[in-house]
UniProtKB/TrEMBL annotation:
It comes from Vagococcus vulneris. Coiled coil: none annotated. This is DNA mismatch repair protein MutT. It comes from the Bacteria. InterPro entries: NUDIX_hydrolase-like_dom_sf, NUDIX_hydrolase_dom, WH-like_DNA-bd_sf, WH_DNA-bd_sf, WHD_NrtR. Pfam families: NUDIX, WHD_NrtR. Residues 37-172 form the Nudix hydrolase domain.
Length: 272
């Protein structure tokens, strides 16, 4: 194809219809002709927890364009002019997945700037972390699929799986992808960074409890924490666990769950 009706048609053609090396050659002529300056993107790690299934999940999208066409990735994209990285994160998440998040949902995770992390050129990404409830998804522009992947920790192996779609295995120590399925760009490193951040902070900054909704029981919190620790929740001592979390919680009532005494219901205290 040698002629196009408009720049948008040309862009779509190179993003979807040619081999990646041909796309990259075209892209660099378009976007990096003279200026030796970086582009900035945002990527977001969204965790949710399904109480009924006792399932910790992460949100991934399947890329519909080069680079890494047809690979799974974190939601994200380029930061637009006159928009902060946080605003870009909120906008890109909705555009690619249909999920609405707010500034109250997100926290900045890390800046990733390793040379060569993006084959299109010098691209720095500001990553974010969010804890939300499980929501229905809608794949958006440049996204052929948006799906929740179950997250399972076994020692230092993290497995992200969705039946009939992909099973992605990551080394929690170095972020290395293992197996035939892998994430686009350096998103394996971003995911493991996020998971380890939650794990290392959850007993002194337990914001991960937000995936449980507005209220929860101590047992529900134990089940969630067990996912990050990679063990059966029954191995976590209930009394000691409760004692460690109480400074961050407010009791809001009781609820009958099964047989026996009613369970106390808590909510997470607001962060000052």
């Amino acid at each position: 194809m040698s002629s196009f009706n408009n720049p948008s048609e040309e862009k779509h053609y190179y993003e979807t219809q040619v081999p990646e090396n041909e796309f990259l050659a075209w892209y660099k002529k378009q976007h990096f002709p003279t200026h030796d300056v970086p582009s900035v993107t945002v990527d977001i790690v969204l965790f949710c927890y399904n109480r009924d299934e006792d399932d910790l999940k992460i949100l991934l999208i399947k890329r519909d364009t080069h680079p890494f066409q047809n690979s799974w990735a974190l939601p994200g994209g380029f930061v637009q002019q006159n928009m902060s990285t946080a605003e870009s994160c909120i906008r890109q998440t909705y555009a690619e997945t249909g999920v609405n998040i707010t500034r109250n949902n997100i926290e900045q995770l890390h800046t990733f700037s390793t040379p060569g992390r993006d084959p299109r050129g010098w691209v720095i990404t500001i990553s974010y972390l969010a804890f939300i409830g499980e929501e229905p998804l809608t794949a958006g522009k440049k996204t052929s699929d948006a799906s929740w992947f179950s997250v399972k920790r076994t020692a230092n192996l993290l497995t992200l799986s969705n039946p009939n779609k992909a099973q992605i295995k990551l080394n929690l120590i170095n972020g290395e992808s293992l197996g035939k399925d892998s994430l686009a760009f350096d998103h394996a490193v971003i995911v493991t960074k996020a998971f380890n951040r939650v794990y290392n902070k959850m007993y002194h900054e337990p914001q991960v409890l937000r995936v449980l909704g507005d209220t929860f029981t101590i047992t529900q919190a134990r089940k969630l924490y067990a996912k990050f620790q990679g063990e059966d929740y029954r191995n976590i001592d209930h009394s000691n666990f409760k004692k460690s979390l109480l400074p961050f919680l407010t009791e809001v009532g009781q609820k009958v769950i099964g047989v026996g005494r009613p369970s106390k219901i808590y909510k997470l205290k607001a962060v000052n």
